């Protein structure tokens, strides 16, 4: 299998991207193709000992930055590492594309270059959401679509369930719809209609409406909402988690007794920090386009890159895209009956 990695995308490119690729190459047998400025990528690779048969470079003379307008950049920067990389997936020169670059440009590239899966109206970003002591849930959508129709939420639920089962090995994953209350009558017109559709689906295990306060408890495996709500949930949780860790650190360094307590608990505190650390969970797949694309956090370090590569492999190997395509027929029947 060939993993195409955007060597120039993200705040820490190309140094951390290359380092992560080298670390991943020691744990997998698949080929990693770095796309980007050949001179800069070679300079980084020279710092490490690695199997040259496992890592190669495809030169790309341009870069799409976070300041670029996504659609315009995809159309005009044909020689960018991002556009070249996605084109490699379309041409069959790669099996999985990973980037920490401009989120909008990755979405636009997926839509314009690969195209939507037939029958999927809106592709979505699916982010792993850490549940302390219980693994992860999957948050769909986490930022691609700020406004949705009821059928879009049905699509998110179906695609998220398939990903959880095929990639994260969750058998019969449960699905919850984020709402302001658990009652069926709660929420907007869109949410009420989506609830009706989700109830009718035989391919997903829908548990009903869920409240935001229950999301961190792991109330369900797939958390369904529009991208606006999903992005707020994700960033609020991330900010709260790191503030709690910062508060704990301050409390444990206030005096001698506190420092002794911190020393005794250092192992557990490190475990807690690891559970909150996004770099441990890999990137977020773009579900609904005709090819496996994975978006990494813009500030991804080498550990995040390594984990994204390793954990992204089943996305391509387990035919998730084809399974989503096969599930479209049932969704169309549900939407027509409404």
Structural description of this entry:
This protein is an alpha/beta fold. A hairpin with a 5-residue loop joins strand 10 (284-287) and strand 11 (293-295). It starts with a strand and ends with a helix. It is globular, with a radius of gyration of 21 Å. The longest helix is centred in the last third of the chain and has 25 residues, at 227-251. 46% of the residues lie in helices and 16% in strands. The mean pLDDT is 90. The chain contains 12 helices and 11 strands. It has helices spanning 15-25, 38-45, 70-76, 81-90, 103-114, 150-166, 189-200, 227-251, 256-264, 266-276, 302-317, 320-337, and strands at residues 2-6, 31-36, 55-59, 96-99, 124-131, 135-140, 174-178, 205-210, 222-224, 284-287, 293-295. It has 2 domains: 2-120 and 288-319, Isopropylmalate Dehydrogenase, CATH 3.40.718; 128-278, Isopropylmalate Dehydrogenase (3-Layer(aba) Sandwich). Strands 3-2-1-4-11-10-5-6-9-7-8 form an 11-stranded mixed sheet, with helices on both faces.
Q: Which features does this protein show?
A:
eleven-stranded mixed β-sheet; Isopropylmalate Dehydrogenase; globular; alpha/beta; 338 residues
Short précis:
The chain has twelve helices and eleven strands. It is of the alpha/beta class and 338 residues long. α7 (189-200) links the parallel β7 and β8 (205-210).
Give the helix/strand layout.
Blueprint (H helix, E strand, L loop, with lengths): L1 E5 L8 H11 L5 E6 L1 H8 L9 E5 L10 H7 L4 H10 L5 E4 L3 H12 L9 E8 L3 E6 L9 H17 L7 E5 L10 H12 L4 E6 L11 E3 L2 H25 L4 H9 L1 H11 L7 E4 L5 E3 L6 H16 L2 H18 L1
Parallel strand pairs: 1-2, 1-4, 2-3, 4-11, 6-9, 7-8, 7-9
Antiparallel strand pairs: 5-6, 5-10, 10-11
């Amino acid at each position: 299998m060939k993993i195409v990695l955007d060597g120039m995308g993200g705040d820490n490119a190309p140094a951390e991207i290359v380092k992560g690729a080298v670390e991943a190459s020691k744990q997998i047998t698949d080929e990693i193709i770095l796309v980007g400025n050949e001179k800069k990528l070679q300079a980084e690779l020279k710092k490490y000992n690695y199997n040259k048969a496992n890592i190669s470079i495809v030169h790309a003379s341009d870069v799409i930055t976070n300041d670029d307008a996504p659609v315009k950049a995809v159309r005009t920067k044909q020689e960018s590492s991002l556009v070249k990389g996605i084109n490699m997936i379309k041409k069959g020169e790669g099996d999985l594309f990973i980037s920490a670059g401009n989120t909008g440009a990755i979405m636009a590239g997926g839509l314009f270059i690969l195209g939507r899966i037939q029958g999927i109206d809106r592709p979505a970003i699916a982010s792993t959401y850490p549940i302390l002591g219980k693994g992860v849930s999957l948050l769909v959508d986490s930022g691609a679509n700020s406004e949705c129709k009821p059928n879009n939420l049905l699509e998110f639920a179906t695609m998220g369930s398939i990903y959880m089962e095929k990639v994260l090995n969750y058998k019969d994953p449960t699905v919850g719809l984020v709402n302001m209350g658990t009652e069926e009558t709660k929420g907007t017109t869109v949410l009420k209609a989506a609830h009706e559709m989700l109830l009718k689906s035989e391919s997903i295990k829908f548990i009903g409406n869920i409240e935001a306060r229950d999301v961190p408890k792991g109330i369900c495996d797939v958390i369904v909402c529009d991208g606006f709500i999903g992005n707020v949930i994700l960033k609020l949780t991330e900010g709260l988690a790191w503030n709690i860790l910062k508060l704990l650190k301050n409390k444990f360094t206030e005096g001698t007794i506190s420092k002794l307590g911190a020393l005794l608990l250092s192992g557990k505190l490190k475990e807690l920090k690891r559970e909150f650390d996004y770099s441990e969970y890999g990137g977020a797949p773009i579900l609904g386009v005709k090819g496996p694309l994975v978006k990494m956090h813009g500030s991804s370090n080498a550990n995040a890159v390594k984990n994204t590569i390793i954990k992204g492999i089943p996305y391509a190997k387990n035919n998730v895209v084809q399974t989503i395509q096969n599930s479209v027929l049932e969704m169309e029947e549900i939407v027509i009956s409404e």
